[in-house]
Amino acid sequence: MDKKLINERAQAAPDVDGITGHRRMRRNRKAEWTRRLVRENHLSVDDLIWTIFLAPGSNVQEPIDAMPGVYRLSVDKAVEAARRAADLGIPALATFGNIEQDLRDETGSNILLAGNLINQATAAIKAAVPEIGVITDVALDPFTSHGHDGILRDGEIVNDETVAQISRAAVIQADAGSDIIAPSDMMDGRIGAIRRALDEAGHHNVGIMSYATKFASAYYGPYREAIGTAGLLKGDKRTYYIDPANAAEAVRDAALDVEEGADMLMVKPGLPYLDICRALKDAFGMPTFAYQVSGEYAMIKAAAANGWIDGERVMMESLLAFKRAGCDGILTYFALEAAEILNRRG
Length: 346
Known about the structure:
Strand order of the largest sheet: 1-4-5-8-9-10-11-12
Number of helices: 13
Order of helices and strands: HHHEEEHEHEEEHEHEHHEHEHHEH
Helix content: 40-55%
CATH superfamily of the largest domain: Aldolase class I
CATH topology of the largest domain: TIM Barrel
CATH class of the largest domain: Alpha Beta
Number of strands: 12
Radius of gyration: 23 Å
Distance between the termini: 45 Å
Shape: elongated
Structural class: alpha/beta
Strand content: 15-25%
């Protein structure tokens, strides 16, 4: 290049060292090895909880239209899935059932049967794959004829009666082998009541992962299709889920769960509420988890299918975001895909 042109360009360039005081952030970004050395957050298979759906019958692997790559699995297929997850190093599964419609009623009474779909799956998984953790929900929505998380009386979800029922259900789920009870119903006082019921039944070692901040979100649509409640819901859930506008209320709600004996806290949905993840971690210093919900999954899958984004990179970036926000782990439908990628990377 002509020396005159070089000198002209040099003279035209700003005095970057003078501007930055010789502090250049790009020095630590210059090569892969330096980026690895200074990386602040790391995603590993240990951070993943695989969320799976259950279906009645046997040899059932039924696709869910709104969630490409996700299936409703019969108990035998869920056992196979648990083996695959354990082989990949995934620590735990969270199970959700698509209960037969004729077994649903106003009070969700099927949740109290020791032989219901959820408990059958728990017992079978723990018998076949004892090294993997099983996390179960005691909310009533998969079991009710109206699709609500609690008992509906005269148009109202009755708090205290619901808490009594889910506390009984928690003991039954623990009897079946559940390692962690994760109540997602958002009734007041449920954590303390469940802890008391578990301890009185001798289940002192069964943990509680509280859905401490579950928001009245629009991101749950595909999930409701998956568990068969999409067309059942009468009214809405804003009388017991948290308003998406309220952060301080969410922290107060979580504080009550901590006082009542929660072992772990969860934020649901995940990515739209990273500020809540960080707030809970900073406030309580407890194991904190996020649920990357069905709507988040479906959006990534749909955009990737249309070629609008690099699906794998967006998936992994979204999971890493939870770690950066302070989460100790993520409940995600991507767990299997992500584990395979992480294991390949070594």
